[in-house]
Amino acid sequence: MKCILILLGILVLACSNFAEAQPRRFSEPPVLVRVPHNKVVYTKTVKRVKVHRVIPSTALRIKHANINYHFYGGKFYRLVGRNYVIVAPPVGARVTALPFGYIRLKNAGINYYYYDGIFYHKPVGVTEYEIIEPPVGVIVPQLPKDAEKVLFEDEIYFESMGVLYRPLQKSYEVVGKVESEHY
């Protein structure tokens, strides 16, 4: 009888389906998935542009690819006419300090820093933080403040500054970037 119970236990363990949570491992960095903008349906039809007449004089001035930006409070601004407009961050630009409230993330063995939809990476031997394309597959605990609910392939996602986030139970996964002439 004891032998039958042991055999039954071994049989149950051998046939059961179980999974262990394992971190994703990539042999090479994941490629940013480009999503055509006509495949994404926005629930709001009008995007609001935040315009500021002035920004603090302590805003950091950054010139990247011959374009002038101002960095303050974790946001990038460009002067348009007489007003400053919040814009998507210039990939490849560098900042000396991360904004207050940033979150440190790790994906595929690489450290990232995240703040309100902007991803940073600190290259080896460099004292500055570089703005990078959003790493596909990275999990973020919160969406950017301006994230919008969208439909993509009949499922609900969120979009902010062209980055597409898939909702998980208590977090969000970066799944790609919406192609558009605006980002």
Q: Estimate percent helicity.
A: under 10%
- First and last CA, distance: 70 Å
Number of strands: 17
Number of helical segments? 1
The number of domains: 1
Let me know the average pLDDT.
79
Shape from CA axes? globular
**From the helix content, strand content and strand pairing, which structural class follows?**
mainly beta
Tell me the radius of gyration. 22 Å
Order of helices and strands: HEEEEEEEEEEEEEEEEE
Describe the secondary structure blueprint for this structure:
Blueprint: H1 2-15, E1 34-36, E2 40-42, E3 51-52, E4 60-64, E5 67-72, E6 75-80, E7 83-87, E8 94-95, E9 103-107, E10 110-115, E11 118-121, E12 129-132, E13 139-140, E14 148-152, E15 155-160, E16 163-167, E17 172-179
Parallel strand pairs: 1-17
Antiparallel strand pairs: 2-14, 3-7, 4-5, 5-6, 6-7, 8-12, 9-10, 10-11, 11-12, 13-17, 14-15, 15-16, 16-17
Report on this model:
- The strands form three sheets. Strands 1, 2, 13, 14, 15, 16 and 17 form a seven-stranded mixed sheet that branches. Strands 3-7-6-5-4 form a five-stranded antiparallel sheet, with no helix packed on it. The protein has a five-stranded antiparallel sheet with strand order 8-12-11-10-9, with no helix packed on it.
- A hairpin with a 2-residue loop joins strand 10 (110-115) and strand 11.
- Helix content is 8%, strand content 42%.
- The chain has one domain.
- With 183 residues, the chain is mostly beta strands.
